Amino acid sequence: MKALLKLLPVFGSLTIAVYAQCPDYTTYSQSPQGSLSTGPLALPYMRPAPACRTFNSTAVEDVIANMTARLKDPDIARLFENTFPNTLDTTVRYYNSTENLAFIITGDITAQWLRDTANQFAHYHTLLSVDKDLAALVKAVINNEARYVSQYPYCGAFQPPPESGLSPTVNDWALGVTVNPPVDNQTVFECKYELDSLCGFIKLSRSYYKATGDDSIMNDNWYAAIDQIFRVIDEQSQASFDEDFDWISYYNWTGGNGALSPAVNNAGNGEPKGYTGLVGTHHRPSDDLSTFAFLTPANAMLSVELSYLAEILDEVGQAENISSLARQWSSTISGAIWDTTIVNNIFAYETNGLGSRYVMDDANLPSLLSLPYLGFLNKTHPAYVATRKVLLSRYNPYYAAGKNFSGIGGPHVDAWNPWPMSQVSAIFGTDDDAEITNALYLIANNTNGLGLIHESQSIYNATDYTRPWFAWANSYFAEMLLDLAQRKPYLIFKENVSYTPGQ
Ligand SMILES: *[C@@H]1O[C@H](CO)[C@@H](O)[C@H](O)[C@H]1NC(C)=O
Ligand SMILES: *[C@@H]1O[C@H](CO)[C@@H](O)[C@H](O)[C@H]1NC(C)=O
Ligand SMILES: *[C@@H]1O[C@H](CO)[C@@H](O)[C@H](O)[C@H]1NC(C)=O
Ligand SMILES: *[C@@H]1O[C@H](CO)[C@@H](O)[C@H](O)[C@H]1NC(C)=O
Ligand SMILES: *[C@@H]1O[C@H](CO)[C@@H](O)[C@H](O)[C@H]1NC(C)=O
Ligand SMILES: *[C@@H]1O[C@H](CO)[C@@H](O)[C@H](O)[C@H]1NC(C)=O
Ligand SMILES: *[C@@H]1O[C@H](CO)[C@@H](O)[C@H](O)[C@H]1NC(C)=O
Ligand SMILES: *[C@@H]1O[C@H](CO)[C@@H](O)[C@H](O)[C@H]1NC(C)=O
Ligand SMILES: *[C@@H]1O[C@H](CO)[C@@H](O)[C@H](O)[C@H]1NC(C)=O
Ligand SMILES: *[C@@H]1O[C@H](CO)[C@@H](O)[C@H](O)[C@H]1NC(C)=O
Ligand SMILES: *[C@@H]1O[C@H](CO)[C@@H](O)[C@H](O)[C@H]1NC(C)=O
């Protein structure tokens, strides 16, 4: 209730009464709501009432109708119906098309993460060419993010734009943290430096441009953000020590006495690194601290996204200096991944450029398991096949299997609570029908009867899960079903005929 009331300045007085009636979705998503699906799982309809939805799209409704008519299992159809629209139904906290600004929350946390938004909209890309209003919303998201990135390229999670009139959310985990360069907490929710956040911004931008052909997103604000991204790439690819063993530090972050966030080694700099051509990060996509700075999957994503960036800039015939720099970095990074992260065909999750490596995978993405999804390599590549086998076994310290659930977790929750998202990545990474079906039902069987995708799930206990309202996980699951609709229609549809939204 409290959260939705904050919407009022945007929608004006007419809808005050309506939004005031809307339940808080964090609470709403924790118990079964509408009618049950007719399959054995009997999953409830969990979309908010139409009047409470935060954005309407007829194209999205059309895809839901098409998919649910084709899916053979009513439980999977119900999951699609709940998850596909979840971003639009619940997370558009502020949108003004005149201002070209939108503020998108993650779900139960009222802040905009660059990573989450890129993923929260990834399954709508094919619709941007058919739904102009949806495209305008995405454009407004990109514009808001260009502002954030140009100002604070080292940060990943942000507060509402001042135009929204929404008040910033206090983040207890950011209190007592010393971060350099320093940030303003009216704009920044949390300034953890996570390389893939910047990749998310590029991914959203290039996907929008590719779908719409609209180059008006590339305004001064956007170019300023892109320049800052190259500044970070340059700074974070450097070795920690100079010739005199002075630490070259461009960014540092550490919790102090009494802070909820941990103190970080080496005055907030983390472990030292050498130069390899890879770009360092400070935190992982889970928002946990990195062990070693060179996160292989984030670099893989960066290499892919920089190559798209070069492509779109060349298409619009602008900024040749940036496109050639992007192409150069893309190839340096991918060369360094192949040269420095693989031993015996197995990719390391992290390396330090000085000979140390950590073979593991974390639960969300970019992860090693998601390398094919990220577009870095083919799922049939021998190095991926060999690595995937390790990741889904005891040799990955964060893989766990119990009588209820299995998959990859991480230090963010713990090893015994893998994330359903890791099973989605596993599906994107194989063509094996039996493995796909098994992973799909591991996820479907483990929503605690709520019909939404959660952050983590206990391997032993069906009712023990985290984050009832996590839009990214819902979007990623729906995106996977749309991928199967093209790749493996006979596995999920009544008829063996593929389906592509918007066609
Ligand atoms: C959108 O922003 C414009 C410009 O600031 C303002 O005039 C208009 O009232 C806003 N629209 C809504 C619905 O708040
Ligand atoms: C979505 O449509 C419903 C009517 O079906 C309406 O009540 C609601 O205000 C709309 N939401 C937005 C954000 O426009
Ligand atoms: C900003 O930081 C100050 C000082 O730590 C704190 O009192 C305030 O609550 C913070 N505001 C937000 C929105 O985080
Ligand atoms: C932290 O980073 C800033 C640059 O943002 C740098 O000036 C400062 O020396 C660094 N501090 C340490 C202890 O490394
Ligand atoms: C590209 O060139 C423009 C115009 O000279 C300049 O403003 C911008 O900073 C350059 N960008 C990069 C990444 O070199
Ligand atoms: C991956 O490689 C297989 C052959 O092993 C090929 O059929 C397929 O088209 C490739 N996929 C992609 C996305 O390149
Ligand atoms: C999912 O649950 C059904 C029972 O409803 C069971 O038959 C099936 O084996 C389960 N699948 C997985 C992968 O756990
Ligand atoms: C899952 O866990 C619950 C306990 O929470 C147990 O009753 C149930 O039998 C388990 N399901 C499976 C498929 O093992
Ligand atoms: C399963 O998890 C729920 C929710 O965390 C908890 O209340 C319950 O005690 C757990 N059951 C067992 C058998 O551990
Ligand atoms: C599904 O259709 C494709 C051609 O569209 C065909 O190659 C494939 O064998 C069919 N699969 C099944 C299981 O019927
Ligand atoms: C849904 O199916 C209808 C009828 O087959 C078709 O006209 C429409 O284009 C489809 N919509 C989408 C988004 O695929």
From TrEMBL:
One of its GO terms (molecular function) is catalytic activity. InterPro entries: 6-hairpin_glycosidase_sf, 6hp_glycosidase-like_sf, GH125. SMART domains: DUF1237. Keywords: Signal. GO terms for biological process: carbohydrate metabolic process. Residues 1-20 form the signal peptide. Pfam families: Glyco_hydro_125. PANTHER family: DUF1237 DOMAIN-CONTAINING PROTEIN (PTHR31047:SF1), MEIOTICALLY UP-REGULATED GENE 157 PROTEIN (PTHR31047). This is Glycoside hydrolase family 125 protein. It comes from Heliocybe sulcata.
